[in-house]
Design goal:
CATH architecture: 3-Layer(aba) Sandwich
Number of domains: 1
Radius of gyration: 20 Å
Structural class: alpha/beta
CATH class: Alpha Beta
Strand order of the largest sheet: 1-2-4-3-5-6-7-8
Strand content: 15-25%
CATH topology: Rossmann fold
Number of strands: 8
């Protein structure tokens, strides 16, 4: 090989090595954005006319966490909501309003390091946070597992899939969710050995095939962050009963742009797999 080719090959290898090292070290900051747009809570459900309960609870490792419980009149079920990797619960008022319109209670939490929750976020920590939220609903609130619908959007979908695999709820909803961190990294960096340098897994694809609850996967073909194919792969890997809900719009606004068809799809799925309201049971 000519000397200049050796030098070029060496330069390429060094560049790839430095980039791999950078990605390995900076992964946490590339996945979690607890300070974007800020940790302070900027609103509450009361700003949209809903009463709510401030909930302080503790994960099994002692980290103090925070969430809101928003009640609906004679609710048929309670949604345990896990949000995406940026912002906090105060940035989810549209979703809180939507589930209230569907006649459902909602328990939405901030992961450790987000909002008013203490600690620092990590993959393992997010699982402990989900477990703590489930424990609060079941042990403190007194709900049965088949009274809970677990919902996760984007990164929250990976947390939701982990929890539903461990504690089967009435149903699971995964919206705009990826199959795993290594799979997503491979899409963005196909020229790097991502499976060797990825420290985070969030392997939802491995879990959906073993779920013991109904599954709804919702995804938009226009999603510019998590490709539509990721949602289809999750759906294909799951056993029945399952449904797929096509959305419109981008990753962060798809649930808003999709409008009434999206809301109708959620309602139909939840109505099918949750208990009837009290007055319906008495007929």
């Amino acid at each position: 090989m000519l000397p200049w080719l050796w030098k070029l090959a060496l330069l390429v290898l060094m560049t790839l090595g430095l980039l791999s090292a950078y990605l390995y070290v900076m992964q946490s900051r590339m996945i979690f954005y607890p300070n974007l747009p800020g940790r302070a809570l900027t609103a509450t459900p009361r700003d949209i006319g809903l009463d709510y309960e401030d909930v302080d609870f503790t994960a099994s490792d002692g980290v103090r966490l925070h969430g809101w419980f928003v009640s609906a009149a004679d609710a048929r079920a309670t949604v345990l909501f896990f949000h995406g990797n940026a912002g906090n619960i105060s940035h989810r008022l549209e979703s809180i309003s939507l589930f209230h319109r569907l006649g459902l209670n909602l328990f939405i939490i901030d992961y450790r390091g987000y909002g008013r929750s203490e600690g620092s976020i990590s993959e393992h920590g997010s699982y402990l946070d989900a477990e703590g939220a489930w424990s609060w609903l079941v042990n403190t609130r007194g709900l049965a597992a088949d009274d809970i619908v677990v919902f996760g959007r984007s990164l929250g979908g990976a947390v939701a899939a982990w929890l539903a695999h461990r504690h089967p709820p009435a149903a699971l909803i995964l919206e705009s969710t990826f199959t795993s961190v290594p799979a997503m990294a491979k899409r963005f960096y196909p020229f790097l050995p991502v499976r060797l340098i990825t420290r985070f897994r969030y392997d939802s694809l491995a879990r959906v095939g073993e779920l013991a609850c109904p599954l709804l996967v919702a995804h938009s073909r226009d999603d510019e962050i998590i490709p539509y194919q990721e949602g289809r792969l999750l759906f294909d890997a799951a056993n029945e009963p399952k449904r797929f809900l096509d959305m419109r719009g981008g990753h962060n606004d798809g649930f808003l742009i999709s409008g009434p068809p999206y809301e109708a799809g959620l309602r139909a799925f939840i109505d099918e797999y949750t208990r009837p309201r009290r007055e319906e049971r008495s007929l």
